[in-house]
TrEMBL record:
Its EC number is 2.7.13.3. It catalyses: ATP + protein L-histidine = ADP + protein N-phospho-L-histidine. The keyword ATP-binding applies. One of its GO terms (molecular function) is ATP binding. Residues 104-186 form the Signal transduction histidine kinase HWE region domain. The lineage of its organism: Bacteria, Pseudomonadati, Pseudomonadota, Alphaproteobacteria, Hyphomicrobiales. This is histidine kinase.
Length: 322
């Protein structure tokens, strides 16, 4: 089968148009064979054919959709074949981007479900009743939801440190409350780090609102984010939470009994802390000392005294940008 008329031939096809040329003169042999087969099927069955074909190009493949139908005379006899090719490269590119995004959403959803499952299991482990479990689990799920909203709003890029912190604090203290001081770098945490740091803030905030600085009028809470060399030419992020309150030992009796624990000493001033295994700790301390540090491949230190609470979290550079 040869062509008798062609219009708007793409410039990258093999030969310029001339009367009598065939499929293999215009395009690669494998593509020509597909079109020839489709046209033969049209002649045999009378059914119009439709194909999507990719043409190799220097940068990206060029996609065309071919519509192949009969050209009939007034009596209904087939006198030829009409082939129309419409470029759909942009459509194919969007489809490919969408597939990539859907795979990414699926991957992130599985990660998020794994986090939720872990929270549910550990919360149940350290809850004395169903009501206690529901109360704690809802709070942690709400915290995770707030962080996830920030990550989603950023097109899955992550969340700014201060925005993440304020999203966790908003239910407990106004940003301009004189008890609250936030200093240091407003780094951009990548998605995984943002979700886990948000959980750490939630545990610290709930504890503070129950027993510490946020539970009294004259308490103080200072949160800082500073960069510190990691010894290998990169900068780590050091998050430091420090709260003070006029509480007495009796006031602190409701706190988790295990909070004096650490994995690695990050600062000389806390190197003399007593070490206590967190294997028997409550979930809040497990989040701060094990779950969050492991998630960001970092280290953490958490201590409580009669009138103060301090928490350090070191986050390696691959978890954030600044």
């Amino acid at each position: 089968m040869n062509y008798t008329w062609v219009e708007n031939l793409p410039e990258f096809w093999l030969l310029p148009w001339r009367t009598g040329i065939g499929e293999s003169d215009l395009m690669p042999k494998d593509i020509a064979a597909r079109l020839t087969t489709a046209k033969s099927q049209l002649l045999a069955t009378g059914d119009a054919q439709r194909l999507e074909i990719s043409f190799p190009d220097k940068k990206n493949p060029r996609w065309y959709e071919f519509f192949i139908d009969s050209d009939k005379d007034e009596s209904g006899e087939t006198i030829g074949i009409v082939t129309t090719a419409v470029e759909i490269s942009e459509l194919k590119h969007r489809e490919q981007v969408l597939k990539i995004l859907l795979r990414e959403v699926s991957h992130r959803s599985k990660n998020l479900l794994a986090i939720i499952q872990s929270i549910a299991m550990q919360t149940a482990r350290f809850s004395g009743s169903v009501d206690q479990f529901l109360q704690k689990f809802r709070g942690r799920l709400y915290s995770l939801s707030n962080s996830q909203d920030l990550v989603t709003d950023s097109n899955w890029h992550g969340a700014a440190f201060r925005e993440l912190l304020h999203s966790q604090l908003e239910k407990y203290i106004h940003p301009k409350d004189p008890r609250l001081t936030i200093t240091g770098k407003d780094v951009y945490l990548f998605p995984g780090a943002a979700l886990h740091v948000g959980l750490a803030f939630h545990e610290l905030i709930v504890n503070s609102a129950s027993y510490g600085a946020l539970a009294c009028e004259n308490g103080s809470l200072t949160i800082s984010a500073e960069l510190e060399p990691d010894g290998e030419g990169e900068m780590d992020l050091i998050i430091h939470w420090k709260e003070t309150s006029p509480a007495t030992e009796n006031d602190l009796s409701g706190r988790p009994p295990d909070i004096l624990a650490t994995e690695n000493h990050m600062h000389d001033e806390v190197s003399d802390l007593k070490i206590k295994s967190y294997e028997t700790s409550r979930f809040g301390s497990a989040v701060l000392l094990r779950i969050v540090p492991q998630a960001v491949s970092g280290t953490a230190c958490y201590r409580i005294e009669d009138k103060s609470v301090e928490y350090y979290l070191r986050i390696p550079h691959r978890n954030f940008d600044f």
